[in-house]
Every structure is written in C-alpha cells, then in structure tokens.
Amino acid sequence: KCLATKSEIRCGLLKERRIGKRTGMAGLISTVLALAAGCLLVSSAHPTSRSDTVAVGGYSAKVALEFRSFTADWWRHNNPGNGDRWQYAGMMTVDVKNTTFRNLAKGLAPAIWRIGGSPEDSVVYVVGNPPECNTSEAIHKSFDYPGPICLTMERWGEILDFVEYTGVRLAFGLNGLYQRHHSNLNFNSTNAREFLRFTAENHNNSVYAFELSNEDNHGQADPDKLAEDFGTIRGFINEFWPDESSRPLLFGPDVGQHFKASEDEWLATYIKIAGPYLNRSTVHTYCNGYTGDLCGTEHKLSQAELDNCTAPELSFKHIVNTNYPGLAVMAGEVGPHSHGGLDGCTNTFADAFWYLQVLGSLAQNGVVAFARSTMIGGWYEMINKTSFEPNPDYFAALFWGRLMGQIHLKTSTANAGTSSIRAFASCRSMSTTGDGDGVTVLLYNSDSSDASTVTVDGLQFSGDDVDAAVTSVQTHVRSHGTTAFSWYVEMLQASGAWQKLQVGPDGAPPDFPGVPVQHPSGGVTVTLVPMSYAFIHIPTAKCPLQD
Fold first, then answer.
1. What CA–CA distance (Å, rounded) separates 533 from 359?
2. Torsions phi, psi of 201, nearest 5?
3. Is 546:410 a contact under the CB 8 Å cutoff?
4. Which of 7, 181, 252, 391 is most buried by its number of CB atoms within 10 A?
C-alpha cells in the first residue's frame, strides 16, 4: 500500500506532507509504491496530449468590484467538533495584528470580508451592559456552546483596524436570535441598537455592510418575523448613518439553501417583505455538503459534479428575482465542503478546480459577489491558521483579482460533456464599462493524466492586430510535486521551467510576470499540463459590452 499515514490518503489519493521533503531513495520508493497502489498522481514527465477548443462570446453579466470575497467565523478552540478545525482562528482570538496575515489580506482587497457563521447568533456586544456577558448561560439552545461570545469594543476596534489597514470591505453579521424566545416572535434589538450606535459614533466609515442572523430558514425564525427584524435594523442604520454616502449596506437573509420546497416557500415569503430593506440577498451553500467525500476520485475530479456546484445559488437567484425583481444576489458563504472542510483536500491545490469553477460560473450568471469559506480558519482556509502561509487557493484568488474584471463574457467548450477543459472570460478593465486592457480568458484542465492544447476562438481584435502576431501573457499554475494534493503551487516561467510560488517574508505578494503567448490572426493557443489552470491576458482583444 502507499507509504503514507492514514490521514494522508483520501480515496487512494496521496497527498504531500507540508513539512519536510521527499528526497533521495526514500522519496523514490514512496513514489513507486504509491503508483503501484493506484494513488492518483499528476503526470508531469511525458503526459499524453489532446486538442480542445473553447469559444468566447458576448456579454454575459456584470459583477461587483469586490466579487471575489471571503468569510471569517466565530468558532472557538474549545468548541466540541469544531475546535480542531479552527483552533485560534476564530474572530475572538485570531491575531489580526500579525504583519504577514495583514499583508496577505491586503493583497486580496477590495474583497468583502464577511464575519459571521453558525456562532454569529451567540455573539453579545459589550456595550450598554448586556446581562448575558455576566453569566455562563448561553443565549439560546440551538448549539452546544460554552456560553455566549462577548465582543468587547476593544476587540471590535482591533478588527476594524485590520479592515482599515488591509482595505477589505467588512460585512458584519449581527446576532438575530438575541432573546428570540420563539420562532414566531421578533428578536430583542436592544443590544444590536447599542452596538450600531457605538460603531457609528466611533468608527463611522469602517463597515461596508451589516447582516442579521445566520441560516434562520431551518426553524429558528419565521420568515415574516425575520423580515420585520431586518426592517428594524434598516431603521437603525438609517438613523445612525444619516449621510447616505457613508451608510453601510444591508445584506440578508443568509439562508442555507437545500432545495426543499418548504425552504423555498420560506424564502419567497421573506423576500416579498424584506426586499425593500435590502441591498443584496444572500445565500449559503457547500458543494459537497457534510457527509460526502470531496476527495474521492469519482466526486472531486468529476467535471459533471464541478459543473453542478452552483445549482443552489442559481436556484436561490431565481426565487429572489421572481419575488423581488432587481434585488442583487450574493453568495454570502460558499465552500467546497461544510463543517470546516477536509484537511489534506480543501486546503490543497486539488481544491482549485472547485474554486475556479464556482468563481467563473457565478460571475457568468450575474451573482454579484461570492464570499468563499474562509480567509482564515477551518480546513478550507486561504491562509494557514498557524503559519500564516498562503494555501494554494490564495494564489488562484490573487490572480483572479489581478487579471479578471467586472464584465464577464459567455464561453463554451467543445464536447463539454466529456472534456475536462473549462473556460471563463472577462473584460480585463476594472471599470464597469470594460473600456481598454483587452480580455482575460481563464482555462483549467482537471484531467490528472492528459495535457491539452487549447485553442480559444471567438475573439475580435482592434485595428491592425487582426493581421499581425500579437503577444498575450499567460499565468499558468500547477501543483508543486507529483500529487494534486500539495500545499504548494508553481508557475510556468518564460524559460519553460516551473518555479514554486512564494510571497515575501512579510506576506506581501510580489509581482508574478506571465509568459508570452503568440497568437497570429486572432487565434490563441495554449497547452495546459494535467491538473493546471491558466489566466491568459489578451490586451488587444475587443471587449463585447452589453447593448
């Protein structure tokens, strides 16, 4: 069998240890035995190759500047069942003063940083002398927590200082179950009011948006009562931030969507009442749920499964648009696997295909923002909770933010039913008009053994570039080592060599120069090695805009 510990194997897939290096004869023996046991390794020596074609079409949708966003949570190290996944990365204990963490987060700005999650409805704000923070009793009995989470205004100031330094946009979830004694009753808004007043008076421009409660469509609150509570919060926001230019937005209801008819009815009722109070409607989904094995060969690497991961968000969007047309939809908490993710899977390079697929699909379908679980914490984190090193998906997020714009285009893949190639495209410009700086095409190859020479069709070029060889730039990334389950990634260099991606000692992401791609007469062709992705920036391509 594979020479790896039990925790290093998931459904026959060998993962690379984060510490140490496999070198010399020991490394060779490990690799040979892994192959013999059927462990899925990435072929990098002489992979077979095939040809694929993708096409870029016209305008599809426009997303928010902060489309690619992230979450944070309140889990504590001593929470039964979750402490090992979060350790001290919850919002009460995570080191928001750590220079590396701050600089890595700054590299992702202006992303939304949504603070919330399941323990959100156990947080009490220590302003106005709330009695709960003088007792060991929990606020409600929905979860087995060791007492309420008491957020002091000193800690709140530290969080807001992190937000100011990094430039991320804070979306803060308020406790919506505070003294809600029954689902058909309103919550007690006293503590929330005092907290909002304090924030407005002391940190007027620090919060981008507020939310209220977490996944209350599972029986914690009736839809009409929760909608009324959102109306109350909207009134407080308008009162304490009379200047609309600095007024925080309001997002909700942060439902967990599971395709149940009763939950669809709950959402429809809520949206009809709360729609006028909201700036965006929000949904939470996890592609693989809780019980499935995301690392299994038949699931994780099935392109059909990846293609279906955004179905819940699109279903949610349809219900919202039907019941309150024009309300923007945001994926407010989305991850590859719930309950904190899977160690050795959702924090490795293999997770990139889920992540890029969801980024591209949601953008194409007009979901204005996507907050991925998490920036830090759990086993799906972008930044390692103990070392503060970037996990592989951090680089995917970094390149998306640098190379993709707000206007997204239609794309198609030839033989999509059998191909492991997927493509997404956007106008490179950061402006909402799409003017200038061409088009970026994102390609990925989820096949573990075959390379693919991909031709991009459908692009139009400006001026004389149609008849001339034009230089584009590709940022081509693959797993570092022989397995997709690596904690490190590497990027293709102009020399043809692959170099491990790293950030500076203080966490500041450096510039990563791309590799030139020649495309004569409007054709763009790139070879993708197995299990890799590439952003191809084509500066002279015209950007088709909405009529």
1. 13
2. -75, -30
3. no
4. 252
| Tokens found for residue 495 | 């020399």
User: Is 359 within 8 Å of 405 (Cβ atoms)?
Assistant: no
- Residue 147: left (phi > 0), alpha (psi -120 to 50), or beta? left
Structure-block tokens of residue 191 = 């503590």
Q: Is the dihedral of CA 206, 209, 210, 213 positive or negative?
A: negative
360: closest CA among 399, 302, 325? 399
8-66 pLDDT, tens digit each: 333 333 333 333 332 332 332 222 222 222 233 344 444 678 899 999 999 999 999 99
Q: Please identify which residue in the block is written with the tokens 């992702």.
A: 108
434 Cβ partners below 8 Å, 6+ apart? 405, 406, 407, 427, 543, 545
Q: Evaluate the CA torsion angle 378, 380, 386, 388 in order and state its sign.
A: negative
The residue among 177, 250, 151 whose CA lies nearest residue 207 is 250
The 10 Å Cβ neighbour count of residue 180 is: 23
With vertex at residue 413, the alpha carbon angle to CA 412 and CA 418, rounded to the nearest 5 degrees, is 140
Only one residue has tokens 């797993």, namely: 479
- CA diameter of the chain: 75
User: How many helical (H) and strand (E) elements, i.e. helices and strands, does the chain have?
Assistant: 12, 23
For residues 89 and 543, give the distance between their C-alpha atoms in angstroms, rounded to a whole number: 41
With CA atoms as reference, report the closest residue to 380 among 414, 413, 336.
336
Q: What is the Cα–Cα distance from 508 to 264, expressed in whole angstroms?
A: 44
Written in H, E and C, the secondary structure of 326-345 is: CCEEEEEEEECCCCCCCCCC
Print burial letters for 113-140: b (CB count within 10 Å at least 16), e (below 16): bbbbbbbbbbbbbbbeebebbeeeebbb
User: Please, is 87 exposed, middle or buried when counting C-beta atoms within 10 Å of its C-beta (0-12, 13-18, 19+)?
Assistant: middle
pLDDT in tens, 474-510: 999 999 877 788 889 999 998 999 999 999 989 988 8
pTM (two decimals): 0.88
Q: Tell the residue number behind the tokens 């074609």, with chain if given.
A: 53
- Which residues are paired to 469 by β-bridges? 520
Element (H, E) at 182: none
| 357: β partners | none
Q: Are 306 and 299 in contact (CB under 8 A)?
A: no
